[in-house]
Design goal:
2 helices
Length: 50
Amino acid sequence: MEGKIITPENVVELLKKEGVEIKIEDAKIMIDFILNIAKIAVDQYLSGRF
C-alpha cells in the first residue's frame, strides 16, 4: 500500500468487499480518526512518551 493515497472511495470499496457497507461521509470520518491516532502515536514516539 506504500505510495497510495487512501480515499473515502477506497475505504467504501474495501469494506464492501468484506461485507460492510458505509457511506462516503462515514469513510471520511474513519480516515480522519485513523490519521489523528497515527499522528498522536508518532508524536508520542518522537517525544519518548511511549
